[in-house]
Design goal:
It contains seven helices and no strands. It has 119 residues and is mostly helical.
């Protein structure tokens, strides 16, 4: 709460809304903790453009980023019970982009079947 109150919010309500949606998507679903917030809000500097600072664990590969993206999309998709419009809005991507990523990461068909049996 302290980090949220101390931030200036130059993007006003829209930035706050995006911050909360991001924290909800990346968090555990129970509480929003400081690590769930964007670096700009918590006062951490963003990661360097070229993370070649001698720390081997500081460099992310494209496979790491894809894994993170896949997990984030899957988590959001599950949280919204397969609602593509809401998932796209929470992720900040268009519906077309969401469809492309769902197909790329093979997310959805099994989840959709599971959801339809619950309804």
């Amino acid at each position: 709460m302290k980090a949220l109150l101390q931030y200036d919010w130059p993007g006003n309500v829209r930035e706050l809304e995006n911050c909360i949606e991001r924290a909800t998507a990346l968090g555990d679903g129970k509480t929003i903790d400081v690590p769930d917030l964007p670096p700009s809000v918590i006062g951490s500097p963003p990661p360097p453009e070229n993370p070649g600072n001698g720390h081997p664990h500081s460099q992310l590969t494209s496979n790491d980023l894809e894994d993170i993206e896949r997990a984030t999309i899957r988590r959001v998709f599950e949280q919204v019970n397969g609602d593509k419009a809401v998932a796209g809005k929470m992720l900040g991507i268009s519906r077309a982009t969401l469809y492309r990523k769902l197909k790329r990461y093979n997310i959805g068909p099994n989840l959709g079947a599971a959801i339809s049996t619950l309804q």
